[in-house]
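Inputs:
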Amino acid sequence: MDLEKLKTNEIITWCPGCLNFGILQAVKEAIAELNIAGSTAMVTGIGCHAKIYDYLNLKGFYGIHGRVLPIAFGIKLGNPDLKVIGFGGDGDTYAEGMEHFVHNCRYNTDITMMVHNNQVFSLTTGQFTPTTEKGFKDGSSPLGLAESPINPLVLAMEAGATFVARAYALEVSHLKDLMKRAINHKGFSFIDILQPCIVYHKYSVPYLNKNVYKLDNTHDASNFNKALEKAREWDYSYEKDTKVPIGLFYETKRPAFESQWPQLKRPWYNIKREVNWHNVINKFK
Amino acid sequence: MMQKTILIGGEAGLGTAVTSHLIGKIFCSLGYYVFNYRDYPSLIRGGHNFNVLRISDKPIHSHEEKYDIILALDQKTADIHEKDLNKGGFVFGVKETEPVLQKLQGPKILANDVLIGLLFKYFGVDLKVVMSAAEKEFGQKSKLIKQAIEEGYGLTDVKEKLEKVDKEKYFISGNEAIGIGSIAGNVDIHLAYPMTPASPVLHFLAKNQLENNILVFQPENEIAVINAALGASFTGAKVLVGTSGGGFALMTEAVSLAGMAELPIVIYLAQRTAPSTGVPTYTAQGDLKFALNAGHGEFARIVVAPGDPQEAIIRTQEAFYLTCKYRTPAIILGDKHLGESNYTFDELKKSQLAGVSHPVDRANSYEHSENGHTVEDAESVARGQEKRLSKMPLIEKEIQKLNPVAVYGKGNNLIVSHGSTKGAILDALPELPDFRFLQISYLSPFPREQVSDEIKKSQKVILVENSATGALADFIAEQTGLIIKNKVLKYDGRPFTPDYLIKNIVI
């Protein structure tokens, strides 16, 4: 499939050099290579990440902050034949939308969630998010952030996600491969994409360039405890150099949410509704 | 004219609700009209629950607070309500049930079966009729239940023979009506998080989901409920969500999203009493302004308030029809009294209207162009606002065909109300001096002309509302410029009764 067909005519308003360009490129390539453009719907939250809605020529729902996952979940209920890809920010997914993240890991709906994790709220000019490192100072935390960040990979695994990965937005080809695997995974697939903000969190670029390494086939992604251990190798902080693994941490099989509903085998758009009113009201006699 | 009011009470867990429902069903099967009011606190075991059944051979739509018969499943019920017995009224209670329970060595809950047997023997109803209705209601053949009913039946002679007066009637609650109205309205998916008094719709549709090929699911909270509903709506599915005030408060951000992204959705808002948690199992109409104003920004909305279950069926279908046609949210404004009371009808009609939607390629919470892309320039922003708001006059025109108001009775004076107060007002109306009753069913868009005309041609105008402030009067003033000074309000969680209205509506 031609990559050009996935382009839109909208003017891209990300900052020059923004790592979101890497994610946009990887998504286009992944979707083109899987040849699923016609059967894919994307959902975005609100934030810099979400601008991707305007730059990708796919069916799409530009949602509201924090609600990417329930919207994606609803799209899948409404049309189980669609591939559904959610794009969220770290504030979007782990702050405002945390309850949905945990529960969607549990539900195991066949949707893919990609978080553009830049460890900061950028579009609102640089406040901390749940993945921002301790000590971070900004307009809303001038005294320095006292809390430690959450680890979304560990959280996803504990909550029951069946595909858990981390990527780096500057490793486009690696990211694209992960996206393809995530989209093909039957069940809830999650990629935490490290996408350092070059304005409000610029120091993570050199740090990640230095410390990121790719998981190779010595890592057993079917082993939950090993995967958990790997996920804990880096704690999203910048105090000292720590190796930052990227790749597929964990993958397992569990029936997808929608496969367990008999009525979704014959979704609403495949049936003609004819109400037998006599039968409906007879219950009340 | 035959008319009886029966109170059935006991602590929670003794089967008060199911007993009164069964008794109501049996009277309906004999052709009587029954109204069943449920009064219960927010607890699972203990406390004091009661139901009031009003039975008549003429149509009735409400209950009273004076009783001809009290069926007391515990002593407390007799102690609390005996003072409200009508002249000649009596109590059947533990005096009757206790010896039977001793004899059968059965659980306390059998007391309700003893009283059922006793009551219907008193009225000379054939035991077979009672037995088959009980089996149907309890969904099982239990030897103990059968024995308890038989024992009760043996405790009295026939005192007042009630004949079958008419063909069998339908006995239905407002919540069940919302459920079947949704089915008739083409619902594909129902999502809800449990909240009294809307949850019975969730239970009803969940129970009937496979038969009707609809999907019913309870997501993690109300925010997920409505956002998932809009996701499904994006694919063209017709979706109903249900909740009460607190849950609706959580949904409001996405009500705006539905308005902005132009996605059809029907929201059933079942009101309960007072702010915050308030009084969860009691009734009120205090959320009228909330329903009319929920959500940020300006967009068209449909708000319709059915007055009884038959109307709930029709209005639910209309809500699906309108939200799909105009692609803006529709709210069905109900309350605990409408939702959980059972009403009687000779027949149950449906409308020809139903929701017809379609999938869209793009939905956007940002201001957007025709092709769904984000825009911020002045011209496009204004155009977007105008496009969405231009739906309002169109819907206003359309609801003219849907009986947006109804006028009952004749008289120079006017009662104005909306929603579940209809029943008590209709039953009080013959006793009220020179009054007609204007029921406003569509609140948004508002049927300005009809309301204005009715008010202008009346001498005295009185607002009746189950609220502390009488919000409908404010809204009428906003919409028509007409001020209603006289208000009969009730805000203690209990619905109006005809007696209360007759005492309080004076010239």
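The mean pLDDT of chain A is 96. Flag for discussion at group meeting.
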